[in-house]
Amino acid sequence: MKYLTSLLLTSATACCGLALMGGSAAAAPTCEDGPIQLGSVSTITGPVDFSDGPSGAKAVFDQLNAAGGINGCTIEYTMADDKGDPQVAAQAARDLIDNRNVVALGGGASLLECAVNAGTYKRNDVLSVQGVGVDPMCFNAPTIAPVNVGPYTLTTAMLDYASNELKNEKLCAFFIILGGTQEAYAQAVKRWEAMSGKTIHLVDMTLPLQGDLTPYLIKARDSGCDAVLTNQVEPGVVQMINTADAQKIEGIDWIFLASGYTEGVAKALPDTRQPVYLGTEWEPYTEVNAANGDWMAVMEKAGLAKTAFSQGGYLAAKVLVDTISSIDGPVTRETIKAKLTEGKPMKYSIAGSDYVFGDAAKHAPMQATKVMQLSGGKWVPRTTDWYVLPPVE
Amino acid sequence: MNSLLASAVAGLSAGGAYAILGVCAVFTYRLVAVVNFTGAAIGAAGTFVMVTLYESGYPLAIGVPAGIAAGALVATWIGIVMTTWFAGASASTKAAVTAALLVGIIAVGLRLTGGQHPHSFPELVTGSAFRFAGVEVTRASLLTLAIAVVFTLVTEQFLARTRTGLQLRALSLRPMAAELIGIRVRLLALCVWAVVGAVTSFALMVIAPLRSPDFMSLSLLVVPALAAALIGAFTSFRAALIGGLMIGIIEGVASGLDTFSQYRGAIPFLVILAVLLWSQRGARWDEAR
Fold it and tell me: Which of A31, A83, A265, B209 lies most in the core, judged by the most C-beta atoms within 10 Å?
């Protein structure tokens, strides 16, 4: 009997990663009021479709429920759509909190949800394990801790990479500024300058979302940039590299953030000779390896496409499942908050940093990226190691 | 100074695009009396039909004509909507209808073309023609300009010298009277729409590889295009042509100047404002006197 119990415990820890939580293995979460309610607010319809994020989270919960739940407790997961509209985002969050009585949020991927709802989460004492945080508030609120690195930390990391590993001297950065992101990108550049003791050669915050990029590329070339970092999204990456080719620009490393990391971008640029690099949020999703193994298995079982966004949803769901599993007693907003704010590091193979929520006033736990290079219409990992930034002071 | 020249030349490729779309906007307004907000979206639809065929392995010799035909078809469809329900409506109502159609077309287009996911646009004309002030002037931007110039000249001659041209002018000035004297108003109007659709589709196919390759960005090219048309007061093809080029060049210069570059997006609006003030100056001064 004793053998059987320990066997069960071992398998439980193995499957749910309880050991990594450092929590007591005998924890037994209970749910007297029915299934545990979780939810997320994501941009699903509207200007972009980030539904892969929450769908990835849902796949984790569905498969957990099918296997009997956590200590018999199943999870009911509500995916709300903010349509890229702040008002809808606010309503969606209130609906999840007041009507659905969610105990926590997680796995959401939205353009603006953090900025709109951080205050609501604070007032209602509910925490959010954001799947893909985009707006600066995702990384600057006490109630939100995303599982992704985010564009700002990635900016710092990629500048550092360009300077240290690609040996570029004159680094230039061109940013598209949407909403209140200017300050966050400026901070990201400053952080790199403080870290490296170097100064950036040129910063241009006026890159247009739509429009011709030729004048900007000419400016970069004529200013003598060795590397150009931008926060372009998918179509912009393609446009930029095509324009660089049309202008026969040579000798500039083009550096992008995770927003350019899709197979569509790689396929649209099969013949370019420009050196193109970018930093990923997690283990590169295009690679089949052990680190991606569990995520891939979950996605395949759910019949979902394997995208970077689904990694975010998956990882956030894992964090929530492991947090709930470590609770001894009823699963409520309070108990989840207590567990998350303990700030114990949680380790997952698809991320380069340990995930920590903790009780700080703002959170950006993920500080590691893997660098990919475009080669023959494919993204190829440049290194197998994580490129990790030193902790923020 | 040299860098300013480089920025100006760099603005040429955008200018060519604005010019052809601006000329098409004047064309639509003069002949069917519609301020057409869907101009670029029609072209985007045709372009994406071409890209879809190209991506599924068809050669360009099939893809390009099919795309042009698709653009003409979408434009004809909009023409049918306009002539069936809004033939007698005021110009502002018609403009509002096309603005509403634009929103609809973008929404549907984004869904059908996979949202922001980029497509691999084949370059119909590759390479650069020459290098000027350190900037490669691409064959594509020269071709766009050429299309704009040829379209302007041909249309002017056609309207001035042919019988159909005369009928078209009658149609736009007094549609009711034209109908009464036996001109086949509806057929002519639909032909105008089809021509606009075909021309913008081809122009956008040439422009697209160097623009942000998604449906919305291409559709929104209509904003600077309408500014260009306004410079021609929606009547002069040549003024719209030059206006489009000027907007492109001013945008290029502005992005080379740090102080101005963040207001670059506002340039079409500033141009519209300046033109309105200038064109209304007579009325204002007369009143003051």
Answer: A265
